[in-house]
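Task: sequence design from structure.
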């Protein structure tokens, strides 16, 4: 009899053991220093091996100021005046879905995908 009360005959294993091998059997063949398995991406589908979420595109103040036809000093002043705390972040909504985020002492600006 097994721990679950299933009968075991000589040489036979219960169905549960056939579906899920014992922990020692699963981990016994994998060395502790084995590298992680990375499966190759399919070339036909164009899929990535591991789907990772993309981080928002943040632009430095100097580049954002040029796109907004402002000086960097004026853009920093606008960010400072429009700054609001949202949870643990400091965010400045500058209009037209343009948002500035404060990282430490510097600002980074996020433009919507349609505005380039």
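Answer:
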């Amino acid at each position: 009899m097994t721990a679950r009360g299933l009968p075991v005959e000589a040489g036979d294993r219960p169905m549960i053991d056939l579906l899920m091998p014992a922990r020692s059997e699963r981990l016994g063949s994998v060395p502790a220093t084995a590298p992680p398995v990375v499966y190759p991406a399919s070339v036909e589908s164009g899929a990535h091996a591991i789907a990772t979420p993309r981080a928002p595109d943040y632009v430095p103040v100097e580049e954002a100021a040029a796109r907004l036809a402002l000086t960097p000093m004026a853009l920093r002043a606008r960010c400072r005046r429009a700054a609001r705390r949202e949870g643990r972040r400091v965010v400045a909504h500058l209009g037209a879905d343009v948002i500035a985020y404060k990282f430490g002492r510097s600002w980074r600006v996020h433009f919507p995908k349609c505005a380039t």
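The two ends are 70 Å apart (CA to CA).
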